[in-house]
Write a structure and sequence with these properties.
Oligomer: single chain
CATH architecture of the largest domain: 3-Layer(aba) Sandwich
Strand order of the largest sheet: 3-4-5-6-7
CATH topology of the largest domain: SMI1/KNR4-like
Distance between the termini: 44 Å
Largest sheet: 5 strands, antiparallel
Structural class: alpha+beta
CATH superfamily of the largest domain: SMI1/KNR4-like
Strand content: 5-15%
């Protein structure tokens, strides 16, 4: 901050990545102060800021029309003070070759009918190409242990991913969490959030939705294991200002299979070039949020 003496990394300076540039912090400090307010008032969604990370500050379509940016492109202040890119390995996508695709485009979703065996195989190929050190897949005993702790069965496709691909470490951006602890895991995150919701007037986390990865900024992708197709949800708590949490839940994809196809094809809202596409389908408010949050909370 202005007037505060800053130090260096000493002999580790050459190893430091994404180090803070104090000069840029000072220059962009007024803009940085506007971001928390914009998140709280809902003028900017957390996932819109996330999409601008690593894009040299080029705003998304929503960012360009957001009141917080004055309705015109500007350098993203979240990127302005970082002097190095994230360095995430982004291998070329393996394009989907589904046996049958029903591209019935509605206002909210695209329904994709895919051969699940083929899909799991393509996910495994992409996962191996993205990481040379994937965790080993989990066995049936670990799946059973996870389901016993959760109190319900994992969605069949999600269980296959952990059983046949890897115990997390693949997927979009921050990648899937491991199934069980001791560190942050699917089961651990679910139990923690459910325990905090039970008995509350306004529970934040619905039963049966397991968090599978974090998008950063307290946002999660979750799979609804109580739905037949395993719909994928976005939990985006940044605009929350009290009362019901249903405003923080969005439908990302009508099914886990379609969500995986989107990742493989490189067409998700979370991709670096998403803001360049006119056909982008963004997460929409989850119309079941209110009922699911109040059901057996």
């Amino acid at each position: 901050m202005p007037g505060v003496e800053t130090g260096g990394y000493g002999p580790l300076g050459a190893l430091a990545r994404n180090e803070v540039n104090p000069g840029k912090v000072i220059t962009h400090w007024p803009d940085m102060l506007r971001v928390p307010g914009s998140l709280v008032t809902g003028q900017v969604r957390g996932y819109d800021l996330l999409r601008m990370f690593g894009r040299e500050g080029r705003p998304t379509r929503r960012g360009r029309r957001s009141p917080s940016t004055g309705g015109s492109p500007r350098r993203c202040i979240c990127c302005a003070w970082s002097s190095a890119p994230a360095g995430v390995n982004r291998s070329p996508s393996v394009r989907p070759v589904a046996l049958a695709v029903d591209m019935s485009v509605g206002s909210d979703s695209i329904t994709v009918v895919t051969d699940i065996d083929d899909l799991v195989q393509r996910v495994a190929i992409r996962a191996a190409s993205d990481s040379a050190s994937l965790p080993a897949p989990v066995g049936d005993a670990r799946i059973a242990e996870a389901e016993a702790q959760l109190g319900f069965a994992l969605h069949p496709l999600l269980a296959r991913l952990y059983r046949e691909v890897a115990d997390g470490g693949f997927g979009p951006d921050y990648r899937l969490l491991p199934l069980l602890g001791p560190a942050s895991s699917v089961v651990g995150e679910y139990l923690t959030r459910r325990e905090a919701s039970v008995g509350m007037e306004h529970p934040e986390w619905p039963e049966g939705v397991v968090p599978i990865l974090t998008w950063g900024c307290a946002m999660y992708a979750g799979v609804d294991c109580l739905s037949e197709d395993g719909q994928v949800l976005l939990f985006e708590p940044n605009p929350y200002s009290g009362g019901s949490w249903d405003q923080c839940w969005f439908l990302d994809s009508a099914s886990l299979a379609a969500w995986l196809e989107t990742w493989l094809a490189g067409t998700g809202w979370f991709e670096e070039d998403a803001f360049d596409r006119d056909d982008l389908i963004e997460p929409q408010p989850w119309d079941q949020a209110a009922s699911r949050l109040s059901s057996r909370a």
